[in-house]
Design brief:
Radius of gyration: 24 Å
Number of strands: 0
Shape: globular
Helix content: over 70%
Order of helices and strands: HHHHHHHHHHHHHHHHH
Oligomer: single chain
Structural class: mainly alpha
Length: 397
């Protein structure tokens, strides 16, 4: 919500929100946290493991990030040599990282932890759930800011704040269920709650894929509330299960591994869902834009040029609170239009009505993909086994 307020002034300011929060967290952590274990005095940093992992993961994520950007005459950058080099380098270095971790005495990633069923199943379900969840928020915000809110009379410049407000039910569902699910998992075990949470998300994604572009807000709010509930049911029990499954001496490393899978899943999510969105829009959006612009008097040559612009340009203009038509149509062309046509093109309804059919087809594909990922995450969660606490259940105790 604060980001929505600041975006009205200048969207660059949203990055500064993290500064006071980061400073406060740093000071609080230094003052409040205490060591719960005594580190070994003779430990050594796994320099080669750190190097291969950091450079490999960054290269892989950079490759996927640039792949969703236009390159040459294509709407996406998969043909960009830089993308191919980054992805290839990332795969090679991460493969080398696995080899290194199997040979060093004190590895950064303790690969033997994956032999623990609860640990490997928990991280797999966390990674898949993160991919499904990460893209959801971007897609919903684009849907709200680019289509739904303008259709309901909200100016593009005010849409980021209104979208944040309309997304509150998602946050409420997560915040309400998170502590409750943690309390219940201590009594019933994590498998039932985490698995049920993922199945709730599957149902939510499937139902979202059936909503029309101009939906009624109440059903939408109920759906995203239950998506938040499902995420809350999954998150706390799954995290606790991962941490409880490893020996106490490895909990720091385990926490770092879990956080890596979680954060990486968000980046992969953006690449996956934006790739699907752009690919589907590329199939039908050019013809839709051309005919829609020509119908209101835009010269044929200009309409043809605009219709072949990368779809990502129009979507990100709406995401940043700008009227897409004012940004992708030349100012001279807009000035030459009759006043009535200019008002129509720059009004709140023209762009949403124009883009709705191809966008909703793409959105349906995105939501079905998210449902499939959440379903596999639910299966992985189901296979974690009964509640397992290493200190209580390991064979050496």
């Amino acid at each position: 919500i604060l980001g929505g307020v600041l975006s009205v002034i200048d969207w660059h300011l949203i990055f500064l929100v993290s500064v006071p929060v980061g400073l406060a967290g740093t000071i609080w952590a230094y003052v409040a946290l205490r060591e719960s274990t005594q580190p070994k005095a003779d430990q050594h940093i796994d320099w080669w493991g750190n190097l291969f992992f950091a450079v490999g993961l960054v290269a892989l994520l950079l490759g996927f990030t640039y792949a969703i950007m236009p390159y040459g005459g294509a709407n996406m950058g998969w043909g960009n040599p830089m993308v191919q080099i980054f992805i290839g380098l990332g795969v090679v270095l991460l493969a080398a990282f696995i080899v290194v971790e199997r040979r060093v005495a004190e590895p950064m990633f303790h690969l033997e932890l994956f032999k623990i069923r609860a640990f490997s199943a928990g991280n797999l379900s966390q990674f898949l759930a993160g991919i499904a969840r990460g893209g959801l928020q971007f897609m919903l915000v684009i849907w709200l800011q680019g289509i739904w809110l303008p259709l309901h009379g909200v100016n593009f410049v005010d849409a980021p704040l209104r979208a944040a407000i309309d997304m509150i039910p998602l946050m409420v569902g997560f915040l309400a269920m998170g502590p409750v699910s943690g309390w219940l998992s201590d009594r019933w075990g994590p498998r039932v709650l985490a698995t049920t949470g993922m199945f709730v998300n599957v149902a939510g994604f499937l139902l979202l894929s059936r909503l029309p572009a101009d939906f009624s807000y109440l059903p939408f709010a109920v759906l995203i509330f239950f998506l938040g509930v499902g995420q809350g049911m999954f998150s706390a029990p799954n995290t606790a299960a991962i941490m409880n499954s490893v020996p106490a001496a490895y909990r720091g490393a385990s926490s770092g591994m879990r956080a890596t899978f979680t954060n990486s899943s968000m980046m992969f999510s953006i690449a996956v869902f934006f790739s699907i969105l752009v690919l589907r829009l590329s199939q039908s959006l050019p013809a839709t834009l051309f005919h829609g612009l020509a119908r209101v008097g835009i010269p044929t040559a200009v309409a043809a040029g605009v219709s072949h612009l990368p779809p990502i340009e129009a979507l990100f203009a709406a995401l940043l609170g700008y009227n897409p038509m004012a940004n992708i149509l030349p100012a001279a062309v807009l000035r030459a239009l009759p006043a009535a046509s200019r008002r129509t093109v720059l009004g709140n309804h023209f762009f949403p009505h124009l883009i709705s059919p191809p966008f909703m087809a793409a959105m349906s594909a995105v939501m079905l993909t998210a449902a499939a990922l959440a379903f596999v995450a639910a299966l992985a969660s189901m296979l974690r086994g009964k509640a397992y606490i290493h200190e209580l259940d390991s064979e050496d105790r």
